[in-house]
Fold this protein.
Amino acid sequence: MANIEVPDDAYAAYEAEAQRTGTTVPELVGQVLAHDAGRRRFLTAARGFATAWAPTFAEEFGPVRSGGAAA
């Protein structure tokens, strides 16, 4: 396990949240990191899906206009 320096104000926020939720700071930080990793995996997969299927959507619905809507 590695030790990571955390600014005092950030640690205080984690400590307060851990106390509020009945967990420890390391457990809370682990949950936050796991959530972030899951979010990053989802966004990476979504980007891959959008890239792979963009031509098909453009063919079916027209090119994307400014603002994200199809033409």
Remarks:
- Residues 8-61 form one domain.
- The two ends are 52 Å apart (CA to CA).
- The CA atoms of residues 18 and 24 lie 5 Å apart.
- Helices lie at 8-21, 25-61.
